[in-house]
């Protein structure tokens, strides 16, 4: 009898143990637009590992790459509603927080150092504060991105060559304004729909950093990378403020520290990626086209200045003066 009781007690404990290993106290549903090959996803995996190990399993992170939780805009809405928790987002936040448009201004940053100085300094803090205030999302980490380049099936060297090119852009008002002014026909569309739209010729072009061009295999449906380098920018990994703050302080610290580890990890991957991407896309058969960048910059500028509100203009001028 005693033996039997003991056995069931042991069994019970074992079962309980198994159960607590399964059900964490907090689950973070982290969805983003890039696929598993992209360094954003590898960084997200690092975050998951760190958070789960350092919280002793009290936090579980579930990753959903390739817009499995919905498009970038959908996931932002879901985080606000509480049905998702984290994502990777940037200039699309302009739809809520006007200062996030600084992540979409063509030719705003001279180089990587200029960008780092802005993001790590007062300008970055101002943008982050407005993001928190207007979206209820908290930036936990940021990743530098390669410059956005235009892909197409005919070479584009000058704005005149655009000639009404049907171009996909993310859901970023400033991108629409600028590409219209340059002479293209921009359409906002979710990232996961772009490949098929290019394949079916509904679209003729898209623009993105080489990293996403490669991981999304756009080389299969686009022949040219036109080196417009039009937007040099960065992106935030964000978490819903409510989701973060409902965790005890010590777990919030685990999340924040894991995000910093992820940021350093991603930055190494980014540097490696930059030295590899152009050759990789050439090996896959894409042709790189030198572009009259000055002509693009000159034609884009009035559209930018026209689109910026006084508040945005002040921030833009501060970036230029940095
Ligand atoms: O083309 C895309 O969808 C991305 O490269 C976007 O730049 C990015 O997701 C922005 O929409 C960030 O908010």
From TrEMBL:
Highest rank taxon of the organism: Bacteria
Listed name of the protein: TRAP transporter substrate-binding protein
Organism annotation: Vreelandella aquamarina
